[in-house]
């Protein structure tokens, strides 16, 4: 990687800003001041310092976001606030995107990264990555519904879903509602809502709890995010 590209990727600004940094002799490679942005680096061996402080190169970034209602799972949108808008300027690395989509009114776990290969592995239907949701449903789910989901329910558009695990957490007979937990192994469009509709009920609140072994941090407030821990990253990247 070229020195100027390295500096830009590690947060030292635009090409113009990096050029000025080099010109002022603030950059050293292996202990020697270097003003040539075209210098090719061997990242595994070369030590780069700015103002005598070592710069660590990080190629990929991983953030756990607790998505709130009202924002969309996109990188940019002309009329709506996006999940990327929730990332601070300090953490807003080049190429960040949400892994998969949560509906505008759906909350919970969303992985934000610039690791395209990991995203592909997590979203590929062939990988059958587990995703767990909790939902409030109008109508009371039953043991029969559990059996239907376990066999693979057919949803609108005559799409057959893979077998899914439905757990009934709480039933409110007076309100004719219930709380459920649902584990699915794929990510069809509006899948959870369509699965529940297929058995005559309706999802009114939906929250994602986990994806691929990554569990939503219950200390993370709605709209907040944090970097993944080393163990969380390792658990996810093992799927590559």
Would you write up a description of this structure?
This protein has 240 residues and is an alpha+beta fold. The chain folds into 3 domains: 3-55, Structural Genomics Hypothetical 15.5 Kd Protein In mrcA-pckA Intergenic Region, Chain A; 62-125 and 213-237, Alpha-Beta Plaits, CATH 3.30.70.580; 130-211, Alpha-L RNA-binding motif (Alpha-Beta Plaits, 2-Layer Sandwich), CATH 3.30.70. Helix content is 20%, strand content 28%. The chain has helices spanning 3-9, 15-23, 116-123, 143-151, 191-198, 230-237, and strands at residues 27-29, 32-33, 48-50, 53-54, 62-67, 97-98, 107-113, 131-138, 154-155, 159-160, 165-172, 177-184, 202-211, 214-215, 225-227. Strands 5, 6, 7, 8, 11, 12, 13, 14 and 15 form a 9-stranded mixed β-sheet that branches. Strands 2-1-3-4 form a 4-stranded antiparallel β-sheet, with no helix packed on it. A two-stranded antiparallel ribbon has the order 9-10. Strand 13 and strand 14 form a beta hairpin.
Q: Which value, in Å, is the CA radius of gyration?
A: 23 Å
Number of strands: 15
How far apart lie the N and C ends? 24 Å
Find the structural class using helix and strand composition: alpha+beta
Residue-averaged pLDDT: 94
Number of domains: 3
* CATH architecture heading of the largest domain: 2-Layer Sandwich
**Main sheet makeup:** 9 strands, mixed
InterPro entries: PsdUridine_s_RsuA/RluB/E/F_cat, PsdUridine_synth_cat_dom_sf, PsdUridine_synth_RsuA/RluA, PsdUridine_synth_RsuA/RluB/E/F, PsdUridine_synth_RsuA/RluB_CS, RsuA_PseudoU_synthase, S4_RNA-bd, S4_RNA-bd_sf
Pfam family, one: PseudoU_synth_2
EC number: 5.4.99.-
Family: Belongs to the pseudouridine synthase RsuA family.
């Amino acid at each position: 990687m070229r020195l100027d590209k390295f500096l830009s990727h590690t947060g030292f600004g635009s090409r113009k800003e990096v050029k000025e940094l080099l010109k002022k002799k603030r950059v050293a490679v292996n202990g020697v001041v270097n003003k040539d942005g075209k210098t090719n680096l061997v990242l595994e061996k070369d030590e780069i310092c700015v103002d005598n402080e070592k710069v660590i190169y990080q190629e990929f970034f991983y953030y756990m976001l607790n998505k709130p209602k009202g924002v969309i799972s996109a990188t940019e949108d002309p009329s709506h606030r996006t999940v990327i808008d929730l990332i601070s300027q300090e953490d807003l690395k080049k190429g960040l995107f949400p892994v998969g989509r949560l509906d505008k009114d759906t909350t919970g776990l969303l992985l934000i990264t610039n690791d395209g290969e990991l995203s592909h592995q997590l979203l590929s239907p062939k990988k059958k990555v587990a995703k767990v949701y909790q939902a409030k449903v109008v109508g009371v789910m039953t043991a029969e519904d559990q059996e239907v989901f376990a066999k693979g329910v057919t949803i609108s558009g005559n799409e057959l879903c893979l077998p899914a695990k439905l757990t009934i957490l709480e039933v409110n007979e007076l309100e004719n509602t219930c709380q459920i937990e649902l584990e699915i192994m794929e990510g069809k469009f509006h899948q959870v809502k369509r699965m529940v509709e297929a058995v005559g009920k309706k999802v009114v609140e939906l929250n994602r709890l986990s994806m691929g072994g990554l569990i939503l941090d219950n200390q993370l407030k709605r709209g907040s995010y944090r970097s993944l821990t080393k163990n969380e990253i390792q658990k996810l990247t093992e799927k590559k």
